[in-house]
Each structure stands twice: as structure tokens, then as C-alpha cells.
Amino acid sequence: MSRETARVAVVGAGPAGLAAARAAAAAGAGVLLIDSEPAPGGQYLRRDALADAAGTARRDRATALPAGTEHLPDTSVWAVEPAPGGGRRLHLRTGPADAPGRRGRTVDAAALVLATGAHDRALPFPGWDLPGVFTAGAAQALAKEQRIAVGRRVLLSGTGPFLLPVARSLIGAGARVAAVLEAGEPVTGWLRDPAGLAAGTGKLGELAGHLALLARHRVPYRPRTAVVAAHGDGAVRAATTVRLDPDWNPVPGTERTVEADAVCVGFGFTPRTELAVAAGCAMAGGFAEVGAAQATSVPGVFAAGELTGIGGADLAAAEGEVAGAAAARLLGFAARPPLRALRRVRRGRRFAAALAAAHPVRPGWQGWLRDDTLVCRCEEVGRAELVEAARARQAVGTRSLKLATRVGLGPCQGRICARNAAELVGDPALADGFARRPIAAPIRLGELAEDPRTAAP
Amino acid sequence: MQGHPDVVVVGAGVIGAACAEALSAAGLRVTVVDRGAPASGTTAAGEGNVLVSDKEPGPELELAKASRRLWPELLAGLAEEIGPQASEAEWEPKGGLVVATGGESAAPLADFAAGQRAAGVRAEEIAPDAAFDLEPHLTRAVTAAVHYPDDAQLQPVLAAAALLAAVRARGGRVRPGTEALGVERTAAGGVAGLRTGAGTIPCGAVVNACGPWSGEFSAAAGAPVDVRPRRGMVLVTAPLPPGTVRRKVYDADYVGAVASDGADLQTSTVVESTRAGTVLIGSSRQRAGFDDTVRVDVLRAVAAKAAALFPVLARVPVMRAYGGFRPYAPDHLPVIGPDPRLPGLWHATGHEGAGIGLAAATGRLLADLFTGAPPVLDPAPFRADRPALTAEAVS
Ligand SMILES: Cc1cc2nc3c(=O)[nH]c(=O)nc-3n(C[C@H](O)[C@H](O)[C@H](O)COP(=O)(O)OP(=O)(O)OC[C@H]3O[C@@H](n4cnc5c(N)ncnc54)[C@H](O)[C@@H]3O)c2cc1C
Ligand SMILES: Cc1cc2nc3c(=O)[nH]c(=O)nc-3n(C[C@H](O)[C@H](O)[C@H](O)COP(=O)(O)OP(=O)(O)OC[C@H]3O[C@@H](n4cnc5c(N)ncnc54)[C@H](O)[C@@H]3O)c2cc1C
User: Fold this and answer.
1) Pocket test for ligand 1, best of A11, A44, A119, A415 (most atoms within 8 A of CB)
2) Substitution target from B318, B322, B325, B356 for chain A, most A beta carbons within 10 A
3) DSSP SS3 for A356
4) Cα–Cα distance between A261 and B59 in angstroms, integer?
5) Looking at residue B286, what DSSP letter applies?
């Protein structure tokens, strides 16, 4: 075990965690950067096999680790608890999750930055459990890291601006993108908003670039449209698309069958909050609540990036910088106030709020499901079964909802289905309770049983 | 439902649900209130063991035997009344196997089993080889084993939900999100109503079934009983192939921890598979007030013992850990019956680590006492005015 009194521990090496590491190092603190991926970068700064030389150089600069940083790749923090001498004790496992012989280690951190990011949200529809249906994030990761396109003819369906870079990655990996379907209003509308919400975030230029690329490849961008069913015998062969009204109810008579061998869905993001919840951080609206210096309600614990709100990579990095400086200051290092980053945070939050307001998930999606459409794939709980079991058993709390309907009890522990299930039973707030996952990452019973302090290093 | 309820049950855990079911079956008009959601407290935090194997001869074993007899009858009755789906509680009379792995625990286990046999429990001493036939993945370090054919299990949340569904079907009410704050009294000093966050519910009787929070509510009602929380954690594995663990399997040291009084961390291993294929591994016992911080050393201790009992489990991923607060009285016996200090106040609480199993007989006993029917078993050991309860509560 190491007791870290001079180092800042950072969990997550995405834009937020990397910026935190840099800011802490700049203040003179050592940094322990823990991340479950093999390479730093998180979701946004992934190794990109499709990038040109300039893009690769940019990414390399953006993911370069500051001097004095110990990076632990392939390492998940599976639990956090109060450390006996104050601060937090992190329990780590290094090595691929399903491999034997992962190494264990515990670290006591006096200053901890949580930057665990988010994963994209999928909405269920008939056929969403067929092979060939992916989340947008997973499809982008495959395209970027391995140049693998998830299909030859791909449909993208979801909401918000981050569908567009996925289309770009897929095109780059050689797929034909049949269409990008935006369930809400087009991104071009609100980003041009006269209030200048996107001003200075660089988002407008970025998105204009993506849209121009779609146009060049003759990829239709269709607002108020979504995939509401995927078809195929064993794998996706086609999908039904439909026009949506403002509440996302299908407009009768507008169904079309589109040939596609892959469907990618992304309906916003769900933050990865289990470590923040386990550390006891106060939450608000499903996100970790933070003050001006990214401090959570727990002394010594800071949070940055999508864990605190969804606003893109720039906001994540700005928050990370503020959090890293604050964490270093807590350890007694003379960090200069990150004034520019604080300004970027304020601007980014305005953008984030506008993004959330412009791309809400509307309740009409619930009508896309048939009675037997699975909501929880792990436990195979269908829509009607879920709603009926919750009603008949008066399951109006998270724990009783899980145990009365089995939803969220499987391997994903509700990461995929909790929000959808909570909305389907009529109480979206029930989703919050699913975030209590004291075992934050899978661990074998034998690993749990062994004491890393006595295990061979 | 017309008019006011006869009885308001405070707490919609398995104990409150069983009481409400039995009272409504006796023809009383029942309302159940819970400040949270039904079956979301301790009842959603434990395992579903319905055990006779872990109890030494005495009042708790008598309650357990009665409950073991009543549960299947009760569930069968509910199936007829509200249908097989609403009454589904995953009842499995699968039997239990208690094993000793060290030389020292073999003799105490045999003595314990002999005592239980004298008290009418089927407890069959079997050779280690026979135990391996029953449980092929069991550690070969087993030196002695006792098979308890009458141990069973059910799914606590489903069971509580089924009981409450029956209460509703009979015209009773279940009100989630309603906190009980105290009782209103008549001029004569008896219960006139239950004060809640949503107004007073006039009624002639109130049942305190607040689980580990029973001490708090009884104090607010003006008749404190000493019930406290004892923290416990359970681990759940990913689903395993059927047959990996077939019965409920315990380490013989279970018995020691159940009866013991120590504040320090204790663990005793119970390994069982659920209908979904997951394996539940329990559990720890610790006095930590209502502190729900998850401690890794507690999980580690539970995991280590389970892996020792079933070496095959070492490779299996653990999906989740959860825990709750067992409600216990100073003498480790449930409290069931009227409170002589406050006419109209009843208690059904303090079931510690066995409330799921003991619920069926608890509900019946309470209803018998309430209606004046011959009690299903001797109520004296559980009475609310026994010295062990009130002595500590006033100090
Ligand atoms: C498909 C897609 C396209 C996007 N396109 C854009 C875009 O074009 N422009 C833009 O600005 N933004 C885009 N975004 C959003 C952008 O990716 C995020 O804003 C950004 O990555 C958030 O940074 P972060 O540091 O908060 O989290 P992340 O980048 O998600 O990093 C979190 C890291 O923490 C690690 N981690 C989590 N839990 C643990 C644990 N328990 N133990 C160890 N490690 C852990 C994760 O493995 C991950 O590496 C896109 C997102 C997606 C999904
Ligand atoms: C880890 C663990 C494992 C266990 N394993 C088993 C097992 O295998 N077999 C077994 O038989 N038992 C087991 N138990 C014990 C069992 O879970 C309990 O004995 C049982 O659930 C107690 O039920 P209850 O209804 O008394 O309490 P609870 O389920 O806690 O119900 C009390 C209810 O009262 C409500 N309440 C409290 N105060 C108020 C108020 N003022 N107003 C309104 N409502 C209020 C609460 O919200 C709660 O819903 C285990 C317990 C734990 C913790």
C-alpha cells in the first residue's frame, strides 16, 4: 500500500483527468493517474488510427503526461472507502478485466480527483438487442482505434451534436453512413442561437466541419427522425425509421424501411458516478455536485468532466485544470489560480446547459417499444413485464424495483437500463439509486478475498 | 375502503407486511404506512433464508418451526386469492447443509444437531463423502456435515410485495412515502390515531414494524423498546451454471456468530444460489450504528470464507455488494405483542438476522393475540414488557 501525502490521485485519463494531472504537476505535486484504458485519452482523445499526421501530433500533445506522473493504465478502481488516517483509500486492480493474475494495490490519497466520465445512453426499441446495434461511443471507439467499421451500411440514430463526429469516424473507417437521424431539432439551429451559447467554444466550427463532410459524402442529416425498430434474423439487416412529433411520438404513415447492417444509437450520456457515490459525494440530478474549485461535498475529493455535467471535451478539460490545481493546493503546493480555466468553465457550463435544453430525451420514445421489447438485456426483462411487475408489486423504490422486476440485477448493474426502466415505470428519479454500486468494477471473488497488502507485488 | 382503519401498521417491510396480511385475513381493516417504498428497507437488504438449522432450542426455534410450516401454506393461499403471478415469491424448500471444516468444530456441530433433533428439527448427520454427493464443489476439507431438509428460501421483496398485494386486494391500503411521527391518545390514554407527515390517521391500534428504526418510532410514540441496528453485508456473483451450488451451505461457525454479542466484525458463511443463477454470499455482522459506508475489509472477510468453502467460486466475478441493518433486541429475541404501557400500541420487530424466515409466524401470532384467537405458539418469550427490553431502553 502507498500512502500518498504529496501526490494527487486522479481517476480517469480523459480530457478532465489529463488536465487535472497537468495542473497538479505544474504546481509541483506528484500525480498518480489511474485509468482503466490501455492508453490515456478517455473517450475524446482516443488513439485515432484514422487521423492524419497533424491530428496524431495534436492528440499526442493532448495526451502527453506531465513529468512526475505515474500512469497506471489498464487499472480500474473497484472500490473507494475512507482511509484510516484520513483521505480516501482506493482499491485497484491492474490487468484486463477477464484475465487471471491481475495485480492488486491499495492507495491512500489525501487529495483525489474523480474524472470518470460518462457513457452514452441507448434507448430500447424492438430489435435493439440484435447483433449489429451499437452505442455511438462503442462504434466510434472501434473505428478510431482499430479502423473497424461496425457495418458496411450504417444508420446513426440519437440526439445531440456528438452524433456527427461518430459519422465522420465511421466514414473514415470505410462505412457508408445511410443517414444521421436526429430525434430532436437540428444541431445547426440552437448552435446559431443569437444568445451566442456556443460562442468561443469552437463547437460551431467543429460541427460545421462535420456537416460539410456529411454533405460531401451525400449522407442525409434528418431531424425529428429516429430508428424505431431493427430487423434481421440473427443480425441487423434493415431498420424502420419514422418521423417524430415534438414529444418523439412516431408520426403515423411516415415509416420507412432502410437497409442497413448496423445501427448506432446515442441519446445523450449517463455519467459514471459509482466512485463519487461510494465516496459519499453529494449528487444533484444524477451528477456529482461541485463548488467553484470543483470540490465535492467530501473534503479532499474533487470531481471534473462529465461526472459533473455533459458539456464536451473542452469543458471537461477546463474543469480538470481547476480541480488539479485545487487538489495540489490542498496538499500545500502553491498552485496559481487557474483564472483562464475558470472562465472556460463558466462559458462551457452555459454551453452545457443549452445543450441539455436543446436535446432532451422526450417521453415519446416509450411508444417505440412493443410489450416484449427487452428493457434489461442482462436479465431479459421486457417492457410489459417490467411495468406490470412494478405496478402489481408497488415497487416505488429503487431497491424494490430491482428485486421485484429483476431489472438492473445483471452484469451491467443497470448502467444501460436504469434510466430507461425508471422512466418506463413513471419515476425517473428511481434511476439515481442504481448508482450505488460499491463494487465499481468487476472483481473476482478470489481477488476480493486476497489482501493486496500481503499479496506478492 | 370506507371509514377509518382498525389498525395502522407502521413499516412495510416483510414483518409489517406479514402482520398486515394476517390482520386483514382476520377481517380487520388495515392501513400500512411506510416513510419510504414498501419492502425497500432491511427486507430488500438481506438474503431469503428460511432456516431452522441455525437456531438452538428455545423460543426463536419454536417461532422458526412455526414459520417454516406456515410459509408454504400462506403462499399457496395467496396464489389462490391474488393469482400465481402476484403471489410469486420464489419459494424453494431446497434444504441446508452445515459443514465443519476444522477438527475443532466437528464435535460442537454434532452436539448442536443432537439438541435440535431433541427439539423436533430434522438434522441428519452425514459423512463428508455424502456431503460431497450433495454438493460436488464443496471443499474437501470438510470433516463433518449435517443435512437439514427443512431449510428453505424465498425472495424477500417478492414475498413482502405478495403479502401487501393481498392486503390491498382485501380493501386495505398501503401508503408509501408516509412517515409515522407518533400516536394520538384518547382521554383514557390509549391509541386514538397515528400522527404522520401527511396528517393523523384515526385508528384504534398501531403496530410498530419499523425494523431497525423501531426504537426510534416507539420512543416517539411514548413507549420505547430497545431495538438497535446491526450492520450486515452480502455479496452477489455473476450467474453460474445450474448445480454449482445446490442447497444452502453454511460454515458451522454460523451458529457462533448468530448467538454472539461481540461488537467487532464477525462473518459467517452462507452460500446459496438464487433462481436467477447468481450466488448470494453472506454475511457479516457488525455494530456500526446506521453508518452505511461499505468497508472493503468486511467484503474481503466474507469473500475469503466463501472461497474456502467453495474453491470453484474464486474465479467467479462478484457483481455487487449490498447491505442493511438487522434489527436486534438486547436479548436477541423478537418483540411481538401489545405494549402494556400504551393500550393500542403493538410491536412486531427485533427479528435480527431472521426476519424473513420468521415473518409468517410473526404475522399470525400478532393477529392471534389481536383477535383473541388461540395463539399459534406461546407468546410469552416475545412479550414487549420483558425486562431485557424496557430496562435498557429507559437507561
Ligand atoms: C461518440 C462520442 C463522440 C463525441 N464527440 C465529441 C466531440 O466531437 N467534441 C467534444 O467536445 N466532445 C465529444 N464527445 C464528448 C467527449 O468525449 C467528452 O466530453 C469527454 O471525453 C469527457 O471527458 P472526461 O475526462 O470527463 O471523460 P472520459 O473521456 O470519458 O474519460 C473517463 C476515463 O475514466 C476512466 N474510468 C472510469 N471509471 C474508472 C474506474 N472506476 N477506474 C479507472 N478508470 C476509470 C474511463 O475508462 C475513461 O478512460 C463525444 C463523446 C462520445 C461518446
Ligand atoms: C445482510 C443481511 C442478511 C440477512 N439475511 C437474512 C436471511 O437470510 N433470512 C432471514 O430470515 N433474515 C435475514 N436478514 C434479516 C431480515 O432482513 C430482517 O430481519 C427483516 O428484513 C426485518 O424486516 P422488518 O420488516 O422488521 O424491517 P424492514 O424491512 O427494515 O422494514 C421496516 C420499514 O419501516 C419503515 N419505517 C421505519 N420507520 C418508519 C417511520 N417512522 N414511519 C414510517 N415507516 C417507517 C422503513 O422505511 C422500512 O421500510 C438479513 C439481514 C441482513 C442485513
Assistant:
1) A44
2) B318
3) helix
4) 66
5) B
DSSP string, B212-244: GGHHHHHHHHT-----EEEEEEEEEEPP--TTS
Confidence of residue B256 (pLDDT cuts 50, 70, 90): low
Query: Nearest CB to B318: which of A394, A395, A448?
Result: A448
Q: In whole angstroms, what is the distance from residue B24 CA to residue B171 CA?
A: 9
- Its ipTM equals 0.90
Q: Identity (one letter) of the amino acid at A250?
A: P
B282: pLDDT confidence band, cut at 50, 70 and 90?
A: confident
How would you classify the pairing of strands A225-231 and A238-243?
A: antiparallel
User: Which of A366, A368, A347 has the alpha carbon at shortest distance from A424?
Assistant: A366
Residue at A57: amino acid letter: A
Kindly report the number of other CB atoms within 10 A of residue B196's CB atom: 18
- This prediction has a pTM of 0.94
Number of H helices, E strands in chain B: 10, 19
Q: What is the pLDDT confidence band of residue B262, given thresholds at 50, 70 and 90?
A: low
The dihedral of CA A343, A348, A351, A356: what is its sign? negative
CA distance B229 to B291: 10
Residue predicted with more confidence, A5 or B100: B100
Q: How far apart (Å, rounded) are the C-alpha atoms in residues B27 and B251?
A: 44
Q: Which residue has the cell 453529494?
A: A282
Query: B38, A445: Cβ pair inside 8 Å?
Result: no
Give pLDDT < 70 ranges for chain A. Answer: 1, 191-201, 453-457
User: Which candidate in B33, B35, B40, B316 is best for mutational testing of the A interface (most A CBs within 10 A)?
Assistant: B40
Size of interface A-B (CB pairs under 8 A): 136
Q: Which of residues 208-227 of B touch A (CB under 8 A)?
A: none
The residue whose grid cell reads 436543446 is A358
Average pLDDT, chain B: 93
For residue A62, give Cα distances in angstroms to A42, A53, A66, A114, A162: 11, 14, 11, 19, 20
